[in-house]
Every structure is written in C-alpha cells, then in structure tokens.
C-alpha cells in the first residue's frame, strides 16, 4: 500500500524521467528498445492527469488532517482533465475542506459542481445533498435546506449515522415550521437508528427534553 501511494505521489516525475530515458535510448539505439520506456511513461503521465492523486487524501481525512488533504487537492492543477466521476469527487472534497474552514459560500459552490457532474454512487450523492442541506441551514435558507435533505433521504445515505443526522435536521426544520407531528415522526426515525456519533447522540438528548411537550 505504501509503495502504491508513493507511486501515485511521484508518478508524474517517474513518467517524465522514463520518457527522457526512452528518448535517449531511441536516439542512441532504435525505437523498439525504447518502446517499453515510452509505454510506461505514457501510462504514468496520463494516470497523473486522468485519475489524479485523490487516493492519497484518504489517510489525511481518516486522521483529521485537513491541511494535508488540502495540499493534495491543491496539487491538482488541471481538474478539468480528471475522469468525470473522479472530478466530481474532487469538487466534493474541495467543498468539504471549505466547509471545515467555515467558507460556506465556497463550500456550496464546490459541492454544486460535484453534484452537477454526477456522483459515482447514489449514497455518495445523498451524502453530498445532506451536506448541501446543512450548508443551507447555516445560511438560514430553510426552504432550500429542506429540499436538499429530502432529496438526500430519497437518494439514500451511506450509513445510519448520516441517515439519523438527516432525520434530526428534518425534525429541526419541522419544529421551526411548527409542524410538530412531522417533527416527532422524524425524531422517532432518528432515534430508532440508534446512532453512536457523540454529536448526534447529544442532539437527540437535547431534543428529547422538550419534544414530548409539543402538541400533535
């Protein structure tokens, strides 16, 4: 795995070196001895621009090192050359980094680009729509937030933690609209999923204190 990550990190330069070596072998000898060098060089250089180094971001994201993840994203100079599903993930990750930095306008712009390109999996699309809904709530655009979160639930979410978060956001939106029966229904759905994320568990405890006193 480490070797593969190193190859991804340095494949452009390895490809350039192999290409230069192939040109030298071609000049000093003939084309066919240089052909394997040309072939590998083209694969490495094309892979750098077509697939990018997004695989390297995983370990940074898992460790919570957003600065490291941002450095990898910033190393992609020509995102338009990325394979379309990978380009979609690239913009989504750019949106996540912007969201972490409280740049909500920048996050929304990047995530919309990712959604417009189409996500590789429905669950990934649902997760992005949920994030867009949360961004809209941060901006106090509650109507748009509800639209995004309902769409996220229809598309499907990758796990019960995200699903519980979506139901809790809908519960908050319904309480704001004074649609208490709907709010209670969404709260029950969130609680039934038995989420374990501390932030979600705490939110359930906070809502539970007063939701039973609501009419409806």
Account of the protein in words:
- The structure is a single chain.
- The chain is an all-alpha fold.
- The chain has two domains: 1-50; 61-211, Serine Threonine Protein Phosphatase 5, Tetratricopeptide repeat (Alpha Horseshoe), CATH 1.25.40.10.
- Helix content is 78%, strand content 0%.
- The protein is built from eleven helices and no strands.
- The termini are far apart.
Question: Could you describe the largest sheet, including whether it forms a barrel?
Answer: none
Provide the CATH architecture of the largest domain: Alpha Horseshoe
- Approximate helicity band: over 70%
Strand content: under 5%
Assembly annotation: single chain
Q: Please, how many domains?
A: 2
Order of helices and strands: HHHHHHHHHHH
Kindly report how far apart the N and C termini lie.
Answer: 55 Å
* Number of E strands: 0
| SS content category | mainly alpha
Shape from CA axes?
A: elongated
Low-confidence stretches: none
Gyration radius, in Å: 23 Å
Question: Which fold name fills CATH's third level, the topology of the largest domain?
Answer: Serine Threonine Protein Phosphatase 5, Tetratricopeptide repeat
- Mean pLDDT, as a whole number? 91
CATH C-level name of the largest domain:
Mainly Alpha
CATH homologous superfamily designation of the largest domain: Tetratricopeptide repeat domain
The number of helices is: 11
